[in-house]
Amino acid sequence: MKRYSSNKTGCHAKRRLSDMRLLFLIILLTTMPALAQSPRFSGFLQLDKRYNVGGDSLTTSDFYNRLRLEMSAPLGDRLYSFASADLRFYDLPRVNSLSGLEDLNSEYPTQLSLWEAYIEVYGFLLKNMDLRIGKQRFSWGTADKLNPTDNLNPDDFSDLVNFAEKIPIWAVKGTYYLGDFALTGIWLPNLVPVLLPRNAASLFLGDQLANFRDSLALPAAQPQNSMFAFKLSSRIGKWDYSLSYFRGYDDLPVLRGVDINLRNGGDLTGKLRLAFPRIQVVGADFAAEFWGAGFWGEGALFLPEKVISTTRVGSQTFTNVELSDRPYFKFTLGGDYTFPGGLYLNSQWMHGFFTERGGERLHDYFFTRLEKKIFRDKINIALGGALEIAEWQNLGEQLGYGFFPEVAYLAIDNLEIVLGTFVVSGKNSTLFGAWETADQAYLRAKVNF
Fold it and tell me: Is the full-model pTM beyond 0.85?
């Protein structure tokens, strides 16, 4: 009886905390516009139904729907504020005891967060200087989502279909404009780690032994562990370009140590210790348009710290280099073009996926997407594909591939209904091969308001 009462109390406490967060966000999004000149409300409602098709049977995926509420408000000529709330709500209940039947959040799980919230000041201290403070998203790089220079915001891998998404982070951003040049400086007080898919961390971190516990050490919340970045951007003729520098931490953890215990039956148990390595990134990018075609490219030189893991088995200790301090280079090259008749083509070559580290571990990825609208632009048919090459020698054993077709209904303004699949496969040495069991079919309806 005591255990039942304790669980119920914990459920009620979680529900009260969720209600308090929702109340806070409602107050934030409704009271700030009262001070504004012409506040604007916007957002979207996205309903997703996902099915796992990569296993032996068809199952419903425990995936979230999404409600985004946004408020933008100019407060005079020199002050601007923006805030957004992100509510993710799931279809599948997470009830495993009778006490869970008393908790609304267990039967209808929700995740509520303040997505972005910042204040921007124009002409701060100097006429040509702008200042932005708060939780914000920095979109660095010119490539189409596959940006090796975009390292300030943590990766959001919670939706595998949209694996290039990012999460806003608290920061201070200052931008100074001088003619055609813009110099941006950003200070990030602390690291925010990557967000991984539910129950699918192995898709990005590799399989861990089931009998092993893990501990994750974040950098201490101290000024010397804060991160910063600079970017200089400008334009020459038809060419846009920028140079950038980032000093901070990788948002994906790396193994620091393993403590192994041997049971009498021969089973292995123990503990994995993980932490986040420091990195420096020097980047450059460009974008241009010629003859109606767009071209872009960006590259990033990564300067990682050396990480040596320690494995303890009884009284014995072994070491292994998990991450070398040798610099390595990632890049993306691509372009797009709309042919006569409305056929759209987008192609990119990405050297080094977001999670790959070390020069010898970088794979090559080729992404292509064809789109064509039919029936007076009411239907959009998209055929997407990807090819992964882990090593150029012995290609037959080093290939991965993906197929991403979609059909979208666009006949009503602000409404999009999409039916699509996300199917990948490949050899064991490839990333797509590791994702093979994560194949999905999905139906998505999205309304923008």
Answer: yes
